[in-house]
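Sequence of C4-dicarboxylate transporter/malic acid transport protein (Geopseudomonas guangdongensis).
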Amino acid sequence: MPRPFTRQPEPLAFVRHFTPNWFAMTMGTGVLALVVARLPWAFPGQMALAEGLWLFGVLLYGLFSLLFMTRLALFRDTVRPMLLHPVQSMFLGAIPMGLAVLLSGLVLFGAPRWGDWVYTLAHGLWWYCALLSVAAAMLVPYLMFTRQNHALEKLTAVWLLPIVAPEVAASTAGVLVPHLAAEAARPVLVVGFVLWGMSLSLAFSLITLVLLRLAIHKLPDTDFAATSWLPLGPLATGCLGLLTLGHDAPAAFAGTPLAGAAELASGLGLVGGLALWGAGLWWLVTAMLFTRHYLRDNMPFNLGWWGFTFPLGVFALATVELWRLTGMTFFALAALLLALQLSAVWLLVLQRTLLGMWHGELFHAPCLAGPHSPARSVLDAGSC
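Predicted 3D structure, token representation.
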């Protein structure tokens, strides 16, 4: 009989082997909550379901944060391998991204339940999230350039994770700004545009390299199947951020020297958002074809499967925002189909995650030396 996850071979083994890629679970759960809440057509219990998913994500994020900080405090010998590993370090970007998605939920669900003081809390947490995002986007590439070992044939879209974090924070700024006073909203908008530009420019460069790698070396191993969806993330988040930041700018900068630029940003935001949505649509179809190919090879489950959820979810959110701004039924129908697909994928990945936890298969970090670190999949080994 498979052992339950509570029967670990050593005390606190699940803490020592806790990996930052668990935060991808909070990203997928949080974005599903936002998608459910913003569906073009309402259904009974919609907001209760969405809020329940968001609260589940908050609980997961709190638990994972506690486990991660405990690992750093009690097992300092694991910090250096984590930072220098060419795959595991990438998942550090999931920490601020998970927080950013939950902050959007705090703005959406928190104020109706607890009052307007929630906006002040979200405002402060957003600056903290932005700082974490920039830290991930700067630190991990620096380690890539100076300490880690990489090769083109080993390149996957997981490289996107740390540099996309500022872009996710920027899209959250677009959710927060309408609930702030103009004086507080302006710095958030300005920093949001800076974060958006910092992230998307680097993301396009990396997506170009990913396309080159795919053309020359073909698809990665089945352990990295979910990474084929990751390029959809920055394209969809870039679309969503441009739409929301551009929409918020005129009101925030009214009566200031930047009022004209803000009006221009609103129009350009819609045009640019449509262009990025088109690029995301190409990658969505391509990723689905890749996944069909991987399914024929019986791809094994690992925590990387949560990479199927967030890109799809944020693309659904961008589609909903385009529907709100254009009023076109096409985008409403597309958003509904994407939401149904996201729900099915989330349920599947959650079920496999719970089974993996019960069997004790997800609490191993093979890059950490020791008798209880059996060889696992490439992605799990990289996410120690």
